[in-house]
Amino acid sequence: MANTTNGMTPRENAKVVAAMVREEDLGELQELHTDLQKRIDQARTDGRLFMMGQYVRLQAMVSPEISRVEKRFKRETLAANRKDHKNLKLEAKAAAEAATV
Length: 101
Description:
Elements: H1 10-19, H2 23-46, H3 49-100
Helix pairs in contact: 2-3
């Protein structure tokens, strides 16, 4: 039996948390990525190899998250467009059937 938190398994809890990602969160991640790049460049210029390595590690964690969130938003937009299209087709079909009756 899986451990539960608030009656949810860890996987279910992760899905709920992931569902709460907003566009503002994506913007902050992108700003963090940009800031890390600036810090990497500055550390390279200053010859601070240790800090440059730490910033690169952090950037390596942030970059895939940005891609994951962007892909998710694109999937959600596509799903909403498909749903709207399906509903419009159903409405058009119902209107056509009503017109022939």
